[in-house]
Amino acid sequence: MNYRHHFHAGNFADVMKHVLLLQLLNRLNQKDKPYCYIDTHGGAGKYDLSKAPSQKSGEFLSGIHRLIQLTAQEKKTAPETVKHYLKLVEELRTQDGQGAYPGSPWFALKGMREVDRATIFEMQPDVFQLLDHHIYDKRAGLHQRDAYEGLLGVIPPKEKRGLVMIDPPYEIERQDFPQLIELLKNAYAKWPTGVFAVWYPIKDRVMVDRFLKKMANTGIRRQLVCEICVWPDDTPVGLNGCGLLVINPPWKFAEQARESLKWLAPYLKMHELGGSVVVKTTVGE
């Protein structure tokens, strides 16, 4: 596979995904019992935005860079969940340098408690070596394994509670993502009480609508869609926006997600007609 997240680290889609990831973990933290966090495509764990891949794409400039450049007064207006995200980003920048940006595994381990546990998959050998170098935490088990077969082997976890973050490279997941739908159906059948969060790109609205309709027809209950579009839907730029499909969203997560995305949208939009936000339940109880 040719996908390398180094080119996209810190872009608007990363900002959206990581803010919502921290919110999901925060909601799970409200109960005393431990849980397991599972990341199906962990990536390198950390990224350096000052290095060639990120500098070549420049995507971070319209993502995390915009938020870092906000005034103290502007940051003060952010929801607490966004403030927490920015605080963690600044923590890593102070520790590793001003070009540092965390990946999902790093954010997750910061958002979890000591009693919780993580299982992180990454299939690409060179990226896994970076993950193994960057993530050293007794709570985390790292696996060089294809998540499409690995996930079903680790659920349900012994904790019985938990969150699965699914963010594939979308190289084989073409059209309306049939492989992803099949994985979710099988995973949900094994662990119907687990929380599943699936990040997806918005390049073609018709394709996304087909994906969400097919997901609604799976019989899986409690599906919540969170989307942010920084360009209008019909703009041919490659990535107009992104979404997070959450199965079994925790209590009050939808309200928090809506508040955070609405605050972020004006700062991340790339067009005067961009910056649209949708948070809606597509399948109820």
UniProtKB/TrEMBL annotation:
GO biological process annotation, one example = rRNA base methylation
| Positions of the catalytic residues | D167
- SUPFAM superfamilies the UniProt entry points to: S-adenosyl-L-methionine-dependent methyltransferases
EC annotation?
A: 2.1.1.266
Q: Which domain of life is it from?
A: Bacteria
Query: Short name of one Pfam family for this protein?
Result: RsmJ
One Gene Ontology molecular-function label: RNA binding
Q: Which GO terms describe its cellular component?
A: cytosol
| Binding positions (S-adenosyl-L-methionine) | H18, H41, S104, E122, D146, A147, D167
Describe the task this protein carries out. Specifically methylates the adenine in position 2030 of 23S rRNA.
Q: Which family does it belong to?
A: Belongs to the RlmJ family.
Name by which UniProt lists this protein: Ribosomal RNA large subunit methyltransferase J
Which source organism? Acinetobacter boissieri
